[in-house]
Amino acid sequence: MPFRSMLYVPASNARAMRKAVDLDCDALILDLEDAVAPAAKAAARAALAGRDETGSPALVRINGLDTPWGDADLAALADIACAGVLVPKVGSPTDLDAVAARVDRPLWAMIETLAGVLAAAGICTHPRLEGVVMGTNDLARALGARDRPDRMPLMAALQTTLLAARAAGVRAIDGVCNALDDPERMRAECAQGRDMGFDGKSLIHPAQIAAANAAFAPDAAEIDRARRRIAAYQAAQDEGQGVAVVDGEIVEALHVATARETLALAEAVAAKEGR
Length: 275
Ligand SMILES: CC(C)(COP(=O)(O)OP(=O)(O)OC[C@H]1O[C@@H](n2cnc3c(N)ncnc32)[C@H](O)[C@@H]1OP(=O)(O)O)[C@@H](O)C(=O)NCCC(=O)NCCSC(=O)C[C@H](O)C(=O)O
Ligand SMILES: [Mg+2]
Prior knowledge:
This protein is an alpha/beta fold. It has helices spanning 14-20, 41-48, 70-76, 93-100, 114-118, 120-124, 136-143, 155-168, 183-196, 209-215, 220-238, 253-272; strands spanning 5-10, 27-31, 58-61, 84-87, 107-111, 129-134, 171-174, 200-203, 244-246, 249-251. Residues 4-206 form the HpcH/HpaI aldolase/citrate lyase domain.
């Protein structure tokens, strides 16, 4: 399945929770953590109990086990239908062990602390991990970084974590764009995240879904080039050659493997969108 767009929905926001059911993001992150005020934690947790799984697959972001609410969140998961658990502020594989020992759902890790980035290789190879989500807000704070449209201060953390995720074969989701009233910045951040190799982007508002879905899916030109690369390489092989040339660029086996992945993603997106 595609992971182009993962929308945070504060579980304490009943209006947003109702809205989320009909949104076309690839996944939801039902948040019990930082988007929920301390006074609203118990009610937010209760709001998830007995939810049905209408709409996009949902991860539940729990509070850390080092907080007053983490234990109760884990206990509540027994009554919460979800596709997985998103663990915040993961700093080591043992942080995942503590959750894995108490829930049998797939785990995702927020990489949003300096320790988490430095331990990314060990975290990403955890046997229960399905993916990582970048927490660029917490990371920027921990770095003492200034906000920049080019996200230069965050690049080392983003690329280090992405390398670890790709090496471990798990999904990697880029951080949020806070600029709700700046669609150009959102577009640029999506393009940057896609260019780097992320699978998708985490979002904070439904208005951001379209940009992420567009950026992280192959476009018509990429689909056409993938098909032509596969065909040209097969023709070269039939003539006993190991290399083809398409649009003035060489095409070797690795390019064909990428082309097949491109077509597979395009098919998964088309299937999800009922095309
Ligand atoms: C930022 C918001 C508080 C703005 O909410 P609101 O003022 O209600 O926005 P709108 O009036 O434009 O809403 C229009 C409709 O859309 C619904 N809505 C808004 N946001 C969401 C959402 N996230 N999910 C689902 N639906 C949403 C409204 O209810 C309106 O619905 P309707 O009237 O029925 O049409 C709000 O967007 C918000 O709370 N966003 C989420 C913020 C959040 O989750 N933050 C935590 C994640 S960011 C982070 O820190 C990640 C990581 O940890 C890190 O460190 O980086
Ligand atoms: Mg955070």
